[in-house]
Amino acid sequence: MEKVGMAAAATATATAIATTEDVEPERVHKKARVSAEADADADAEAGGGGGGGGSAAAPSALHGTEELSARPFPCPYCEYRAKTRACLQAHEVVHTGEKPFGCDICPVRTTTQAAMNIHMRTHTGEKPYACSLCPYRSATSTNLKIHDRVHTGDRPYACDFCSYRGATSEHLKLHGRTHSGERPYACSICDYRAAQKGGVVKHERRHTGEKPYACNTCSYRTSAKSNLNAHKRAHAKEGGSASASASASASASASASASASAPAPAPAPGPAPLVGVGGATGVGVGVCPLCGFSIPPGLSLEEHSAAAGHVVLAV
Asked: Looking at residues 147-159, what average pLDDT do you find?
């Protein structure tokens, strides 16, 4: 009876395992799956000459005898098995959402120490991953891989609705909202919604009046960085015009100064002022000082000058 009971138990176990194989969870680790397939092949060969050993070999078809001994700590949430209890605990946070590692500088917490080490680089500025083609450096190897696509032109993420291709899955996700019309980010003050978080942040500044972008040349402030860039370009353009104007003004001032310091040019020679003898300009004044004409009585100097073409100035 004891042997019959043992045989029945073995059969039940095999049946349960076979059922488990038919409904294999989606998240089975690739390494464990490959190992299970290899062990199943080995067990099938070993059981082929064993005569009725098919049921006994079934347990190793799921995990493998060696796999069970090498990874004795099973995850209570999925099919994952760990080599050590510490590895299992590190894996379980994927399911529990626990973040036991806290940053000493800011409120960020992470699920693993490795993730915390990467986060700390945002505070230290460390960027150990360097691009081989340009000066770009990154804190993570993933970011460097994404950056490399700037040089290679690789855009592996294709849109299902148009010809758009993205360098990252996030870029494709954001692009997809142009087709779906999805706007998951909502304004906390009005009914405005945006496809990207940055759109809502920029929009809400219309309500709050916040203008975080300041010009370093004048008192201008704005809520959008693009506006500040346009404003700075206007400064640059005005600066060029002002420089040209200042140069022209300086040149004109220099010319004026030179003219002021130079002696006044002598007046062009012309007919000398005609003044009568004794300074008189009346009738019968005597001799014309320009031509020596003796002015007879009854003839004025002005009359003579008009006839002779002289210029007469009253004294």
From this structure: 94
CB–CB of 164/174 below 8 Å? Answer: no
For position 219, what pLDDT does the model report?
A: 92
204 has pLDDT over 60? yes
Query: d(Cα 47, Cα 39) in Å, to the nearest integer?
Result: 12
Tell me which amino acid residue 40 is: A
* C-alpha 113: how far from chain center: 29
The pLDDT of residue 55 is: 35
Q: What is the mean pLDDT of residues 241-247?
A: 53
Cβ contact 192:203 at 8 Å: yes
Confidence class for position 139, pLDDT limits 50, 70, 90: very high
First to last CA, the chain: 162
pLDDT at 259 over 70: no
CB-based contacts of 55: which residues, under 8 Å, 6+ apart?
10, 11, 14
**C-alpha R_g of the chain:** 50
pLDDT at residue 93, as a whole number: 86
252 token code pair: 């004109």
CB contact burial 159-185 (16+ within 10 A = b; e otherwise): eeeeebebbbeeebeebbeeeeeeeeb
Please answer whether residues 300 and 288 qualify as being in contact, where contact means their C-beta atoms are separated by less than 8 angstroms: no
Among 90, 139, 87, 86, smallest CA distance to 110 is for 90
Rounded to 10 deg, the angle between the 54-62 and 2-22 helix axes is: 40
Q: Structure pTM? A: 0.42
As given in the structure block, the two tokens for residue 314 are: 């009253």
Q: Where are any strands of DSSP class E within the chain? A: 73-74, 81-82, 101-102, 109-110, 129-130, 137-138, 157-158, 165-166, 185-186, 193-194, 213-214, 221-222, 273-274, 311-312
